[in-house]
Design a protein that fits this description.
288 residues, mainly alpha, 11 helices, 55% helix
C-alpha cells in the first residue's frame, strides 16, 4: 500500500508586526522622556549642591584662619554651622577662651562639640584637651575617666600614648609608682613608633623619684644692738659669740684688715772719701 505524502508543518510562526519592546516604547514614550528629564535635573542638582558645599567649606576655612579673638571665632562657629569647620573652630574657640581666663566657657565649648559631633576628627583632640584642663583645675577623677577612655578607643590610637602618660603622671602624684611604671612601659611596648615613646622611657626611670619636702628657712637670731637695731656685719666679730666651731671663711671676712706697714728705708749710700791734694814740698835750703 502506497504511503501518503506528509505535508510539511511550520516550526514557528514569524510575526511581521512590532515587537513587544517597540510596543512598550511606543506606549510609554512620553513617560520615559519625563523620567530622563527628571534624572538630568537630579544629577545637575547634585553637582550644584556639591559645588555649593565645597564653596561653603572653603569660605568657612578662610574665616577660621582669619579669626584671631574669641568674638571672631564665635562668629565662625555660628555662621558656618553644619560644615566640617564648625567642630574645628569650636576647638580653637575653647583655646582662645582658656587663654583669656574664661575657663568655664572653654570647658563648656569642648563638651558641646564632643557631644554634638562625636565622630568628627576634631572630637578626639577635643577630648584630650578636656582631660588636660580638668586635671589642671583639680578634677583628677574626671581627667582619669577621659584619659582612660581615650587609651582604649580604637579610633584614638594616635593619641593613646599621650593619654597613658597623663594617667601615669596622675598615678605618680597619687603615690602609686608601680602603676605609673606599668603605664609608661605600656607606651613603649604597645606604641614603640610613637613620638611619645622616648619620653615615656625617660619618665619611667624617675617614676620612684620624690621631690624633697619644702620647709621654711630658720630665722637668723642676731643679737640686738644697744639702740635696738641689728648689728652691722662689718663690726668687730669679737662682739658676736657662736656655740659651734668657728668658720674660717667667716672669720677671715670679719677680721679687720691689717694696716699696711711701711717698707724699710734703704740704708744711706756710703759717702765717698774726700780727696785732699798732697802739700807741696819745701825747697831745699842748700840749693838754688
Amino acid at each position: 500500500m502506497a504511503e501518503l505524502p506528509v505535508e510539511p508543518r511550520p516550526i514557528a510562526e514569524i510575526s511581521h508586526g512590532p515587537s513587544a519592546s517597540e510596543q512598550f516604547l511606543e506606549k510609554n514614550q512620553k513617560l520615559l522622556i519625563v523620567v530622563a528629564i527628571l534624572l538630568a535635573i537630579v544629577a545637575a542638582g547634585i553637582v550644584v549642591k556639591r559645588g555649593m558645599d565645597e564653596g561653603a567649606r572653603l569660605a568657612a576655612g578662610a574665616a577660621m584662619q582669619d579669626a584671631e579673638d574669641v568674638a571672631a571665632m564665635q562668629d565662625v562657629v555660628k555662621n558656618h554651622a553644619g560644615t566640617p569647620t564648625e567642630a574645628t573652630a569650636s576647638v580653637f574657640l575653647s583655646d582662645l577662651q582658656w587663654e583669656q581666663g574664661q575657663q568655664s566657657a572653654a570647658l563648656e565649648t569642648l563638651k558641646a562639640v564632643i557631644e554634638a559631633q562625636p565622630e568628627h576628627p576634631a572630637a578626639i583632640p577635643a577630648r584630650a584637651r578636656l582631660g588636660a584642663r580638668l586635671r589642671e583645675q583639680g578634677d583628677t577623677a574626671g581627667a582619669k575617666d577621659i584619659f582612660k577612655a581615650l587609651s582604649e578607643d580604637p579610633a584614638a590610637t594616635w593619641i593613646a600614648p599621650y593619654a597613658l602618660i597623663s594617667l601615669a603622671d596622675i598615678a605618680r602624684e597619687e603615690g602609686d609608682a608601680e602603676a605609673a611604671k606599668s603605664l609608661l612601659t605600656k607606651v613603649n611596648e604597645d606604641f614603640p613608633t610613637s613620638m611619645f615613646s622616648g619620653s615615656a622611657g625617660q619618665l619611667a626611670k624617675f617614676a620612684d623619684f620624690k621631690f624633697p619636702t619644702e620647709i621654711d628657712p630658720p630665722a637668723d637670731e642676731l643679737p640686738a644692738t644697744s639702740d635696738g637695731g641689728l648689728p652691722n656685719p662689718g663690726e668687730d666679730a669679737a662682739t658676736t659669740t657662736t656655740d659651734g666651731p668657728s668658720n674660717p671663711l667667716l672669720d677671715a671676712l670679719s677680721e679687720t684688715p691689717a694696716e699696711e706697714t711701711e717698707a724699710p728705708e734703704a740704708p744711706p749710700a756710703p759717702e765717698e772719701p774726700a780727696i785732699t791734694p798732697p802739700a807741696p814740698e819745701a825747697p831745699d835750703a842748700g840749693g838754688e
